[in-house]
């Protein structure tokens, strides 16, 4: 049986707020230019076009955006329906409306979508946990339409629970025939003593029955990503890690033997914020198993170890983890990391798919981790 975890960074569309931006250096100049254009008594069409460009680059157009909107036809007119939208926003022959709408989601490069499917086809797991997917409908389409293109049989079962984040960062699970999802438990309502939700995305518990009648328990989460207020980020992430660790300890105390904790922890193994998981439980990281297999860096970096990297010769910062209970770790036959879909923007360099020629064609910024166990 093979288990894999992969932060796929969305399937077809990605929220603009999650995309990297290289505009910071020019933001001051752009803000000044907007002020100058707005101060004009009369603005030309060229001025208005430039205002639209600047508002997009500075993120001003994000202020009134909503997670969704629906365009409906009524009495010969097109209406934009959504929270706080009125009937005045309509297009028709009489109004001659020449407006524009900024959408919050950006379509992903088609080659990148195919490379996401290639990664999964390469690993071909029996149980797959994906982080950062849009929704169940997108996952179903990806499963049925994209995977077969790369000779990967679609998964029989899939399940998605909408978490606390509204930017399309859901956690989903897919399983093959013979691996039944018996139960799913969400922790989106878990709160700390102040009444704040602990998980900005979610913590999910899966009970899966294997072909041989064994029970596998998978705990999947996506912890707080690093923000500008790094100290506060560490506090939030540590609170989340404590709750994940407590969830694991509870299952282990109940006599559950085969438990896996997977997901994007958004911190290197030495980070204080994830000590509750890595040092205060008996969980074992598959990257430390003797069978761990990965294409090492090219050139001089092959013999180098970077602080926070997966291991010597795999010099990318570890954010994604596949942790196993002692009993499940003892059953490991083989394990590895697939980063053929990750764009090596700077040194180190490693082997990638021939179809990737630039960063926006990469499958994800995260590698996929997998483990094969004899259960």
Summary keywords:
7-stranded mixed beta sheet; 20 strands; alpha+beta; 375 residues; 26% strand; 6-stranded mixed beta sheet; Deoxyribonuclease I, Chain A
**Poorly predicted ranges:** 85-89
The main β sheet shows up as: 7 strands, mixed
The CATH topology annotation of the largest domain reads as: Deoxyribonuclease I, Chain A
Measured distance between first and last alpha carbons: 7 Å
CATH architectural name of the largest domain: 4-Layer Sandwich
Count of strand segments: 20
Order of helices and strands: EEHHEEEEHEHEEEEEHEHEEEEEHEE
Number of domains: 2
Summarize the structure in words.
By secondary structure, this protein is an alpha+beta fold. It folds into 2 domains: 2-15 and 108-373, Endonuclease/exonuclease/phosphatase (Deoxyribonuclease I, Chain A, 4-Layer Sandwich); 18-106, no CATH class. The protein is 22% helix and 26% strand. It has helices at residues 27-38, 45-58, 110-123, 136-146, 230-253, 275-278, 326-329, and strands at 2-7, 13-15, 70-74, 77-81, 90-91, 105-107, 127-133, 157-161, 170-175, 180-186, 203-209, 215-222, 259-264, 284-285, 292-293, 309-311, 314-317, 320-324, 332-338, 368-373. The strands form 5 sheets. A 7-stranded mixed beta sheet has the order 8-9-7-1-20-19-15. A 6-stranded mixed beta sheet has the order 10-11-12-13-18-14. Strands 3-4-5 form a 3-stranded antiparallel beta sheet, with no helix packed on it. A hairpin with a 2-residue loop joins strand 3 (70-74) and strand 4 (77-81). Helix 1 packs antiparallel against helix 2 (45-58).
């Amino acid at each position: 049986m093979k288990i894999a975890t992969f932060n796929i960074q969305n399937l077809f569309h990605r929220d603009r707020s999650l995309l990297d931006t290289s505009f910071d250096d020019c933001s001051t100049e752009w803000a000044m230019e907007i002020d100058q254009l707005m101060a004009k008594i009369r603005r030309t069409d060229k001025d208005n076009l430039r205002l639209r460009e600047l508002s997009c680059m500075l993120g001003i157009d994000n202020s009134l955006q909503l997670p969704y909107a629906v365009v409906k036809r009524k009495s010969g007119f097109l209406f934009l329906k959504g929270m706080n939208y009125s009937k005045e926003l309509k297009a028709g022959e009489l109004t001659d409306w020449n407006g524009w709408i900024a959408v919050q989601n950006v379509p992903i490069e088609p080659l990148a979508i195919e490379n996401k499917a290639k990664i999964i086809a390469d690993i071909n797991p029996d149980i797959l946990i994906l982080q950062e997917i849009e929704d169940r409908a997108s996952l179903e389409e990806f499963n049925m339409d994209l995977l077969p293109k790369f000779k990967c049989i679609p998964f029989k079962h899939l399940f998605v629970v909408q978490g606390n984040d509204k930017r399309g960062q859901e956690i989903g699970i897919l399983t093959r025939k013979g691996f039944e999802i018996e139960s799913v438990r969400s922790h989106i309502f878990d709160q700390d003593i102040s009444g704040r939700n602990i998980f900005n995305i979610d913590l999910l518990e899966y009970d899966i029955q294997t072909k041989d009648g064994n029970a596998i328990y998978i705990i999947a989460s996506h912890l707080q990503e690093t923000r500008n207020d790094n100290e506060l980020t560490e506090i939030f992430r540590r609170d989340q890690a404590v709750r994940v660790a407590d969830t694991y300890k509870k299952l282990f105390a109940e006599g559950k033997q085969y438990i896996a904790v997977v997901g994007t922890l958004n911190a290197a193994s030495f980070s204080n914020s994830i000590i509750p998981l890595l040092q205060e439980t008996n969980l074992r990281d598959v990257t430390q198993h003797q069978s761990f297999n990965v294409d090492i860096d090219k050139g001089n970096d092959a013999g180098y170890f970077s602080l926070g990297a997966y291991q010597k010769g795999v010099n990318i910062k570890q954010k994604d983890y596949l942790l196993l209970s002692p009993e499940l770790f003892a059953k490991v036959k083989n394990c590895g990391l697939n980063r053929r879909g990750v764009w090596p923007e700077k040194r180190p360099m490693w082997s990638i798919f021939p179809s990737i020629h630039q960063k926006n064609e990469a499958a994800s910024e995260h590698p996929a981790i997998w483990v094969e166990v004899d259960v």
